[in-house]
Specification:
Blueprint lengths: L1 H99 L1
Length: about 100
Amino acid sequence: VDLLTGVVDFLTGVVDLLAGVVDFLTGVVDLLAGVIDLLAGVVDLLTGVIDFLAGVVDLLAGVMDLLTGVVDFLTGVIDLLAGVVDLLTGVVDFLTGVVDL
C-alpha cells in the first residue's frame, strides 16, 4: 500500500509539474502578446507623429502658397500703378505738346 501511495504521489507530482510548465508557457505567451501589443502601440504612435509632421508640412506649404499669392498680387498692384504713372506721363507729354503748338 505504501508503494502504491508513493507511485500515486509521484504521478501526482509529475502531473503538477506538467501543469506548472503549462502555466509557465501560458505566462510566456501572455507576455509575448503584451510585447506585441506594446510594439503595435509604438508603431501607431510613430505613424501618428509622421501624420502630424506631414500635416505641418502641408500647412507650411499652404502658407507659402498664400504668401506667394500676396506677393503676386502686390506685384500686380505695383505694375498697375506704374502703368497709371506712365499713362499720366503720356497725358502730360501730350498736353505739353498741345501747348507748344
